[in-house]
Amino acid sequence: MHALQSTIASPVWSYFATICSIPHPSKHDRKLADWIIQWAKEKNISCVQDEIGNLILKKSASHGYENNTAVILQAHLDMVPQKNNDIDHNFLTDAIKPVIEGEWLRAENTTLGADNGIGMAACLAVLADNTLQHGPLEVLLTTDEETGMTGAFGLKANALQGKILLNTDSEQEGELFVGCAGGVNVTVTLPYEIMESEPDNSAFEIVLGGLKGGHSGCDINLGRANAIKTLVSVLNNLEGVPFHIAYFEGGSLRNAIPREASCVISCDPQYQNSIEIIINTLQKKLRNQFKESEPNLALSVKSYDLPNFILTHKSQANLLTSLTQCNNGVFSMDNNFSDVVQTSSNLGVVSQNRNNRGVFDIQVLVRSQVEQEKQAEAQKIAQQFEQHDATASLTGNYPGWTPNPHSEIYKIIEKQYIDLFDKQPKAMVIHAGLECGLFSAEYPQWDMISFGPTIKFPHSPDEKVQINSVDKFWQLLVATLKAID
What we know:
alpha+beta; 6-stranded mixed beta sheet; 5-stranded antiparallel beta sheet; 11 helices; 29% helix
């Protein structure tokens, strides 16, 4: 990323390069936290780590700004670990490899971690630059945001003294986010029974891949294929073939639209030609159906070693019917903000425990700006699975962030944006979970705003950040800090 060092936001790019070099996937951000702790010590910046793993760093006000309102800059430490299946990358040990591609920065076949690494880099750059003008400053870097918002849930009251919070975790330059969706997980356990395979049968692996996936909130309205739902529809179109499922899995994260899914089936060898013809026909239909949103969709079938066991007829019916019925996608749009999804769900993961338990673990994430709708849709999905011998529970519920029509920080940052870029920013809510909703429980007095650079396709290997939007993000952040009195 050396070529980026000449841009306006060069301090941000420098710290982002370091962040990319240190593995920090969700649940494993300790290495990055340790580096920041050591970095702060070397720069004589106060840094403490709370019992949950959050970092709180503090910097005194600039000369003449001592009596200004104390401000909190906030980002999260972790990144979503997603990669293309055909590459070898260990997110626990390997660095992210950024690549400049025209006006964008992306990574080689993995998520980039611009979500929320750019925001985190900006926080560190502010702490390190003693020429900037600002009041008393605190930086909050939360742990495990992407897989449960653990840090935000665990943040204690009175840990911070600031009155204004600048969240750096939104993903469209020119938009100022004043609210966000809440979310709840529908966690499903679907038991299954097995029987022995017929020894004279043949087995086949069906794989659906090449999909874009993406953020289950921000990208849920883009018409992309959900690999799990689509593969289930493929199996439902094999109704003329008496097949038995041995294995079925798809997706890897509840908050990412699943890009890949696979299954292994067995049947009498006489049906091999029929299966191959059907799969080839279905691939053409799916490519036509998703020609705009999924140009690289690939559906394939190949021979597979015959498994010892297959699902019983009832267990197979329970699996296919429950996944078919599971509500997925956009349910309603927000009447107050144009083109913003209000309520949605994402069937994100189906994993199969092939050991003693004999269960499918299924994860669905429901999001909404309206708490009542969120709970109603989650309950409906849970009941859909429970009708087919599954147990379902609602877990990890987190609130949305309700817009504050009297926000002073919105007025301040709006003015700075107009002064800098001669353009009116757009007030928005985001159909994704920001930690602001959780912060309001312990810190109801905080006046909050979220803004950031333009990041496309987060939570997928297509993730990329627009380079010049980082320049504008940095300019706006510096001007806003100076303007808060």
